[in-house]
Recover the amino acids of this structure.
């Protein structure tokens, strides 16, 4: 994903789409993409084009996810699945090192992953925005994470541009989508008879040479731009970022926190499905003899009782404390910490909240009342 | 809850006892199910009293006593007090011992009437009118949850005590573990009335992994008594069951009044819906 790469476009006929899979496999990639699993779409292995969820589309609203049968023959009618890109680079559970006791001391052996080359097909703009934020967290500065690095470096990313927005999507207001503009090796726009293929890296351009692409008429690219613009315009939810981060800091004592705390389960689902949440715990797993221990990293959440615990005290005992911590960090403190918002507008925290809490509504209330009272 | 752990002297093995009150023995079987670790356990522990596993029965005192089952008969109370006297660590294992178990459903009923209705000779039955957790009667040093308990959790507690470390088990929701295992939420994707968001982790999110709703067998998330404003937010989940998933009040009551139904967060939630039931009936 070389920033100096000059993008080129071509047309891939629908009947030639399997060539893409062949080309990836010839390069040694295992291929994963959206697949039907357990009544939802998850990342799964793609052996043939039949593994894509053809003839299905997703309906998402706060606290609700359903798949619906359609007559469509398209491969990428599902906007996005239950999981973000996150588990592919930041593993939910991984052993970091093994500690072994010897006669007078102990030996620590790091267990670095050696993952196979992985091509991910069907990545959305919001997924890429989430990945860019995780890169900033795990790879930036003097303490780059070698475990994340190993999983990150083996990736070949094929984005699919969004032409349909879900009820829960608000990427347009976050400036992250629906069009993916960077961070991919190839990007596809699916049409009725073909795909428009865009290269995003030298590796992507090399792979595209195996696809017998046809030239794209300039008019076609204009049509696709219009389709993506229409997708952005169709989004009904948004976050007004103009007043952030200040407005949320000022809302620290807002009564809306009590209101949302009555609805919030503190179950951690929003943070688990969030493509950017990076909190983790480190667990020790000793054997009965205390001669060997595995130290593992596991996904954690600011909604757990242990997250706010310091010696002798839990700093965030109530649901209100925890929700305020999450939203304030995600939408405000993140900007001060990393120079970007922690939200990409994918809407997964709305869909996968068991009680359907909508952070776009919460932030609206928290900011609106401030403007009313602050005048 | 637990006192600071003390290390066991070099060369001495902690003496373990396993005692039983009203229960199905499933948690004791979870100990025996630690097949890969049983030999090691025998090396680091002196298994002094475990009638389910061995006819060798050594008298106390014991260093660690696992107690399974709830207090259900009049003589249980004294027997439990004696056990407490003879052990350093008293650790309850399973929902019966920590919450009163499924048999605590009798706490909402007229137990005498049930005896007369069920048994041809009710006078043969000698039981209390309630089933109560061990912690209502004696000081408990540590509680291991579940119906049945998870053998990995039990092994971890033993490992910590043997190593002189205060045992700790996580108290967060089942959802966190469900997502770590990359499972699809059955509540959101299937409309199943899953108790995972208000239930304590420990099982490994087994039921959602089998496309089933969690039924709360590891008890309320964050412990048996909810602090004001702290999880578990049973009320918000119950409202979702009712309003969005279409459960009628009696169905909501049955979700919460199960294996751990006698514990305060679940008990109070089911009581709240009982009054809703009355309102509905009167209306």
């Amino acid at each position: 994903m070389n920033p100096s790469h000059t993008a080129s476009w071509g047309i891939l006929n629908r009947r030639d789409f399997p060539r893409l899979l062949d080309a990836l496999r010839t390069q040694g990639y295992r291929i994963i993409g959206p697949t039907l699993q357990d009544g939802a779409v998850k990342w799964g292995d793609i052996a043939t084009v039949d593994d894509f969820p053809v003839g299905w589309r997703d309906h998402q609203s706060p606290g609700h996810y359903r798949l619906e049968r359609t007559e469509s023959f398209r491969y990428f009618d599902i906007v996005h699945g239950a999981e973000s890109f996150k588990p592919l680079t930041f593993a939910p559970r991984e052993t970091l090192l093994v500690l072994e006791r010897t006669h007078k001391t102990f030996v620590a052996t790091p267990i670095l992953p050696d993952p196979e080359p992985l091509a991910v097909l069907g990545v959305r703009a919001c997924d890429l925005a989430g990945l860019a934020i995780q890169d900033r967290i795990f790879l930036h500065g003097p303490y780059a994470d070698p475990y994340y690095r190993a999983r990150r470096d083996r990736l070949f990313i094929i984005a699919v541009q969004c032409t349909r927005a879900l009820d829960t999507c608000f990427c347009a207001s976050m400036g992250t989508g629906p069009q993916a503009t960077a961070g991919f090796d190839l990007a596809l726009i699916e049409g009725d008879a073909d795909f428009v293929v865009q290269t995003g890296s030298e590796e992507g351009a090399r792979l595209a040479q195996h696809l017998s692409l046809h030239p794209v008429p300039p008019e076609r690219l204009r049509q696709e731009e219009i389709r993506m613009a229409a997708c952005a315009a169709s989004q009904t939810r948004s976050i007004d970022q103009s007043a952030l981060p200040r407005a949320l800091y000022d809302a620290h004592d807002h009564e809306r926190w009590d209101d949302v705390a009555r609805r919030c389960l503190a179950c951690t689902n929003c943070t688990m499905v969030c493509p950017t949440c990076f909190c983790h715990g480190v667990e020790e797993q000793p054997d009965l003899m205390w001669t060997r221990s595995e130290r593992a990293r596991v996904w954690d959440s600011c909604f757990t009782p242990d997250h706010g615990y310091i010696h002798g005290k839990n700093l965030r005992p109530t649901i209100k404390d925890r929700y305020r911590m999450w939203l304030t960090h995600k939408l405000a403190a993140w900007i001060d910490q990393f120079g970007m918002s922690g939200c990409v507008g994918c809407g997964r925290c709305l869909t996968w909240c068991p009680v359907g809490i909508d952070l776009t509504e919460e932030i609206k209330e928290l900011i609106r009342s401030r403007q009313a009272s602050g005048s | 809850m637990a006192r600071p752990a003390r290390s066991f002297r070099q060369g001495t093995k902690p003496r373990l006892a396993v005692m039983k009150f009203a229960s199905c023995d499933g948690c004791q079987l979870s100990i025996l199910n630690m097949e890969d670790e049983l030999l090691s356990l025998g090396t680091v522990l002196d298994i002094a009293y475990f009638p389910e596993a061995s006819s060798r029965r050594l008298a106390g005192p014991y260093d660690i006593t696992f107690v399974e089952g709830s207090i259900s008969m009049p003589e249980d109370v004294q027997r439990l007090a004696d056990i407490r006297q003879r052990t350093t660590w008293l650790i309850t294992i399973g929902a019966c011992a920590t919450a009163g178990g499924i048999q605590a459903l009798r706490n909402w009923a007229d137990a005498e009437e049930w005896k007369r209705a069920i048994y041809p000779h009710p006078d043969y039955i000698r039981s209390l009118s309630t089933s109560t957790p061990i912690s209502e009667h004696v000081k408990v040093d540590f509680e291991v949850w579940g119906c049945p308990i998870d053998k990995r959790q039990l092994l971890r507690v033993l490992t910590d005590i043997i190593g002189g470390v205060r045992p700790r088990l996580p108290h967060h929701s089942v959802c966190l573990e469900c997502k770590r295992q990359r499972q699809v939420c059955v509540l959101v994707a299937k409309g199943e009335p899953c108790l995972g968001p208000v239930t304590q982790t420990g099982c490994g999110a087994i039921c959602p992994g089998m496309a089933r709703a969690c039924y709360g067998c590891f008890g309320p998330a964050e412990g048996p008594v909810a602090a004001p404003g702290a999880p578990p937010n049973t009320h918000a989940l119950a409202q979702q069951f009712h309003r969005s998933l279409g459960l009628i009040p009696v169905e909501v009551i049955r979700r919460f009044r199960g294996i751990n139904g006698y514990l305060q967060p679940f008990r109070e939630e089911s009581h709240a819906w009982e009054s809703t039931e009355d309102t509905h009936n009167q209306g």
Q: What stands out?
A: Chain A has two domains: 9-84+113-233, 246-374. Residues 319-338 of chain A form the longest helix (20 residues).
